[in-house]
Amino acid sequence: MNKLFGLFYFMFGVIHFGYAQEDVSVQDGQDEAMASVETEEVAVMKDTVRNFKRVKLDGIAAVVGDYVILDSDIEKTLIDLKSQGVSTADVTRCGLLGKLMEDRLYAHQAVQDSLLVSDDEVAATTERQIQGFVQQIGSMEKLLKFYKKEDEASLREDINEINKLRMLSEKMQGSIVEEVEITPEEVRQFFNKIPEDERPVFGAEMEIAQIVKSPKPTEKEKQNVIDKLNAIKADVEDNDASFSVKAILYSQDPGSKSKGGFYSITKETGFDKTFKDVAFSLKEGEISEPFETQFGYHIIYIEKIRGQELDLRHILMQPEISQKALDDAKSELDSIRSHIEEGKYTFAQAALNFSDEKETKYDGGLLRNPTTFDSRFELTKMDPTLYNQVRNLKDDEISYPILEQDPRGGGPKYKILKVTNRFDEHEADFAKDYLKIQQLAKTEKQYKAIKEWMDEHIEETYISVNESNHECDFANNWVKN
Predict the structure, then answer these.
(1) pLDDT, the chain, mean
(2) How many helices (H) does the chain have, and how many strands (E)?
(3) 336 touches 270 (CB < 8 A)
(4) CA distance 295 to 36
(5) Residue 62 has what pLDDT?
(6) What is the pTM (predicted TM-score) of this model?
(7) Cβ-based burial of 324 (10 A; exposed 0-12, middle 13-18, buried ≥19)
(8) Fewer CB atoms < 10 Å away: N or C end of the chain?
(9) CA 144 to CA 45: how far, in whole Å?
């Protein structure tokens, strides 16, 4: 089972900061770089004397398609892992080289298959990362010193190249596994093949239900937001103001504000339906009228249309919620809580009749784990905020109203919570843990699909490994024995 639980690393490993695609052309016969060259040093003497000095240069470790991996890329990756606090005790140079080659094979084939990423998408990701780095390390000057860069432009260029490689790699991997499905019979066979003494143990879990009251703004507050969005729209259209700058200044969407409101979406992207409907009704360069979703009011600007994919920017604004509306929502939940405890109705009935959260009200208020989509939350893997809200609740106890800001960008809301079921740590049971076992079985099937893809494309792609690395025990047939 150790192999099984290591699948995620193989499939979705992280490409770390510190190495980049090199624009180096390598001709046949040049793919093994010289480890050193002899440079001539002329001494100033009476007689002409030539002294030779060996100088270590950065050699080529491997070439995969259009990508070159330098020896320094391997060293930088190891340094990066250490700087991120990752244990490198079991990390070998050969293992890192194999991982870098995998990433570049994915990226190379993504380009061949026209699975491209836009420059704006890459730049937006880089901007978000740099802001996070600066916040973490203290200043841009310290960041440049840490990564040994002379200026911000060269740092951005390096990170852009890294992000483009990573995003291409992720697109290719996603394309490989997106069609993989698993049948109930395959799940059963997968489980039965696991020896009893090797079956996974699942930690203590709980099921949680909630009832939510979302205070409503007044019509006047709604109109104020609509007027502000219309003013922004007019300024962009009439005065060539920057939509991106406006989004940074005024948008209340935490997921895109720092990126100038940028998103790249398709019709399959898991966004609000109304948002997608408006976005796909617009032409390139057009700005929508203000419209409402569950998160507030938006305007959308279409930056680029690429087939079935849109590059867009949006601004989200939420109407002000008065303190009276908040107090009324809290008071209503207090009454609902009292009525449940008095036996007037069950928690599930109250959720159906009174909760404002459509995603949970029709299921008795039951929350879904965003990772597994199951109703169970493993205690050691729960969101810390949610865990702290329920950890002291006893059986059948209902929390007092809790004020919470919507992390997706919606307005404030009150909620009451109840732990509806508890499960002790236990060995995997096919009936009770079917969804978890199904996911493990699907992961193994995805792993096999990745492995088959890898074997096939290694054979048909130009790959050269420096002779000094031929002794590596690679997981894939990079040397093509």
Answers:
(1) 85
(2) 16, 15
(3) no
(4) 60
(5) 95
(6) 0.60
(7) exposed
(8) C
(9) 43
